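Reviewers of the previous submission asked for a worked example of the structure-prediction workflow described in the proposal, so we include one complete record here. The input consisted solely of the amino acid sequence. No template or homolog information was supplied to the procedure at any stage.
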Amino acid sequence: MNRLHAFILLFVATVASQPPAAATVQPTDTARHPHDIDVAGMDRTVPPGDDFFAFTNGAWLKRTEIAPDRSSAGIWNDLSDEASRNTRDLLDRLTRADTAAGDARKVRDYYASFMDEPAIEAKGLAPIAALMTKVGAISNRAALTQWVCSSLRADVDPLNATNFYTDRLFGVWISQDLNRPGRNAPYLLQGGLGLPDRDYYLNASAPMETIRAAYQAHVAAVLTLAHIDDAAAKGARIFALEERIAQVHATRTDSADVQKGNNPWQRDEFNRRAPGIDWPSCFAAAGLEGAPEVIVWHPAAVAGIAALAASEPIEVWREYLTFHLLDHYAPLLPKAFVDERFAFYGKTLSGTPQIRERWQRGLAVTNDALGDAVGRLYVQQYFPPEAKAQLQGIVKRIVAAFEQRVDALPWMNPKTKASAKAKLSTLIVGVGYPDTWRDYSGLQVVRGEALMNAWRAELFNYEYHRSKLARPVDRSEWWMTPQTVNAVNLPLQNALNFPAAILRPPFYDPAADAAVNYGAIGSVIGHEISHSFDDQGSQFDATGRLFNWWTPDDFTRFNAAAAKLAAQYDAYTPLPGLHVNGQLTLSENIADVAGLSAAYDAYRSAASARPPVRSGPFTPDQKFFISFGQVHRSTLREPLLRQIVVTDGHAPDEFRADTVRNIDGWYEAFTVARGGKLFLSPADRVRVW
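From that input alone, the workflow returned the following structure tokens.
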């Protein structure tokens, strides 16, 4: 999902008529004003035209050590920690309260059940034994189909290339139909892998070979902990099966291509197009028998996995399903399972030396199960009602700036401009929290049943999404909880979500200069708005329908600019021999460029209406861009960095900060001249919108 979001009150600052060159900014003022950019975190010996990320964050980078229970450090970690502490306080108060009722009681009991580690330890494998018995009883293809299709999940989003994989054999996502905006439809996606991506199985590089060996050892270790005989041989067979699944998987880049994902299949076509699974039985087990058609996002993978379901021995499928059942619920099993899972997914895969404290993991599982119920408590305590109106005001200003940019495009046909402006005028912006909260009355939570609470919650949440097939499309639906530090653009809904937990300093500070706020949260708002017009969002009209509203010439020019930006990012190398994938990250890169441009325009418009006053060593224009660079402040362990480059739709933050090289105002603010490493001639600066 897009890690960009917003909250800003209009508090205008200053623009100097002749901003000084970077060389004249003396590195003497290292104190940080609590409502300003972080001067102490900068490295002002680095020319901003050579490395803007280091200029804005270099001193912070040199002194920052990643905590032993983390794989990264940065602004996002800090805000997530703040949200976690606030949520923990709420849950601790609930745990001590005997009067909690309704959803609050369920939140309390779910969290308390996870936190009761001695009880989980004492029960051993007993809570999962019945499920393991069901898997162990699979003796034919019909039973295999029943198990696989009755345990699908509905939390994978094909429009978000970083989140489509699942350890279930298939993923299901239910939302507005790509082609018929008036109805919801099920989307079927590839799944079945324990590693993050097909490349982890198929890439022949030494780091991937090491991870594959460690994963196979992890599979065997989990089986051994469950007292399953011949674990090493079974682990080898499980890995070999996953390797065959990976071979039929689509690539990350293909998965991000909505045109390749738009494959509506009638239900009665599945047996012919993907033989190997009894699809009518599958749809019945999944509760999808009422859907007239299913949009198959990964047709080759679905057909390939179905063929494997028919050809691979049943005993191997039993071994595979047993392992994934244990591995999936390992966080709710005794400590030996928790430690083994962390040893692989935490240490090996992400480079994190130490597992997070149990309360932090307890928050995560409780948010997964009862996110809206927790969120309702969160906003009552930490997000005042007036914040909604304040952010909605700034969103309107950024939208207006974006609309002006559309009007000013010299190459765009008036018809295309009208369609783009129609999208802007109908954009739904969710701020802080949803207008309607989810109802959890149908979810059974039993104190002391940590694992089965999770099992029931997964089925409950799947049923919630599945039931949307019988309901009208809700364009205001939220896909994030208020306590989530993130934001998202939803092309199918032509909507944005800005959760409450992201609407905090340093993204937004009501006491900060407008330049600081616009550079931080303004660029974030602009980023999310721009996703409606990136290489994916631009393919959807104002109703969320997948529809070409471009003239051929306009789309050709747009694609040429996008290709230019992809090439720019292809050249970045976060590690020797490791290149950013400009096509995989294109949507986010377009949104960064267009969003920063719109935020800068809105900031300059506000500044012209109320002349500001300079304070500190930097001009307001310089502060705007420094603030943007500092919201991309992060450092990562190498294994996580490698994983992000392979699987994530976002480029590493150090290169996102360098988005400024495409903005004319940045060159003027820092007098960046030819010869700077980031310098681009005006003709080479990407101007997508």
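The chain has 27 helices and nine strands. We consider this example representative of the routine output the project will generate in years two and three.
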